[in-house]
Design goal:
Pfam families: 7tm_4. GO terms for molecular function: G protein-coupled receptor activity; olfactory receptor activity. One of its GO terms (biological process) is detection of chemical stimulus involved in sensory perception of smell. The structure is a single chain. The protein is mostly helical and 320 residues long. Helices cover 72% and strands 5% of the residues. The strands form two sheets. Strands 4-3-5 form a three-stranded mixed β-sheet. A two-stranded antiparallel sheet has the order 1-2. The longest helix has 34 residues. The protein is globular.
């Protein structure tokens, strides 16, 4: 880090900017990585935006399940946009720095979106639980007002919890070289730069992660236990297949999201290494958001049909 990135305070030099060095060791591969991440980013944004537009223009998809799916697609677009554009810039420049304020803003955005997604996935599981286990009460329980409240609660939980946690993290003093062994401002790599004992901070971060990641996860697991038991009791094979097909996409997305989240934030500190942190971070910041549009379009018959009809209408208008 240059001297301009340090602020003197007595005998300590406090950081005013950080250097993200995860990509520096891949100098020869940076042009290739730039193209790969750029294509992935454009595909992710385009795919999720397409899902939102298809749901918006197709009246048959104006149901709670697709309302939550549109919310999830919006979340994924914002989530990948909080990390990848900066990473693309850093792949083109030699000095890969970010101001402390910029680092804080990035952490606010991706942590809020990450926790909101945890809660939203739990809400989507609840929607499937009511639809399959209590179909006669579905309209009453999952009306427009209830859907808005559930989505709003997901967003408010993410905003309140992660705003408090990130604000607390950035009250720590950061000194020294300010070198982050990562490609974005993730929680643990930033906390490690503090020039005070952060053991208590790390315990609190672990507890917050345990509560707010595991609670939605356990709720999803319990919901799907009930769902599976209900499906197995259905007398018709066609009914069982239809019921399971409405859940399969959600199960895949939950598995991808929670698999990386649990591995990243709930593993013991002794198992954290820069390489494993970077590998899992690539999964949940780049790969998972890119796979979600594929999962929901290839495995969802209604979305595929709606997309096909929308495409056909556009082609007919162009011909006319």
């Amino acid at each position: 880090m240059s001297n301009s990135g340090l602020r003197k305070n007595g005998s300590l030099s406090f950081c005013s900017e950080f250097t993200l060095v995860a990509l520096s060791s891949l100098a020869e591969l940076q042009p290739v990585l730039f193209l790969v991440f750029l294509v992935t980013y454009l595909f992710t944004v385009g795919g999720n935006l397409t899902i939102i537009c298809v749901i918006w223009v197709t009246r048959s998809l104006h149901t709670p399940m697709y309302f939550f799916l549109a919310n999830l697609s919006f979340l994924e677009m914002c989530y990948i946009s909080s990390v990848v554009p900066q990473m693309l810039v850093h792949l083109l420049v030699q000095i890969k720095t970010i101001s402390v304020r910029g680092c804080a803003v990035q952490m606010y955005i991706f942590t809020i979106l990450g926790l909101t997604e945890c809660c939203l996935l739990a809400t989507m599981a609840y929607d499937r639980f009511v639809a399959i286990c209590h179909p006669l009460h579905y309209t009453l329980r999952m009306g427009p007002s209830a859907c808005l409240k559930l989505a709003g609660a997901s967003w408010m939980t993410g905003i309140l919890v992660e705003s408090a946690q990130t604000t607390w993290i950035f009250t720590l003093p950061f000194c020294g070289a300010g070198t982050i062994q990562h490609f974005f401002c993730d929680i643990m790599p930033v906390v490690k730069l503090a020039c005070v004992d952060t053991s208590q901070n790390e315990i609190v971060i672990f507890i917050i992660s345990l509560i707010f990641i595991m609670s939605p996860c356990l709720f999803i697991l319990c919901s799907y236990v009930r769902i599976i038991l209900t499906i197995l009791k259905m007398p018709s094979a066609a009914g069982r297949h239809k019921a399971f097909s409405t859940c399969s996409s959600h199960i895949l997305v939950v598995s991808l999201f929670y698999g990386t989240a649990l591995f990243t934030y709930l593993q013991p500190k002794s198992l954290h290494t820069p390489d494993t942190d970077k590998a899992t971070a690539l999964m949940y910041t780049v790969v998972t958001p890119a796979l979600n549009p594929v999962i929901y379009t290839l495995r969802n018959k209604e979305v595929k049909e709606a997309f096909h009809k929308a495409t056909q209408r556009k082609l007919h208008r162009q011909k006319d």
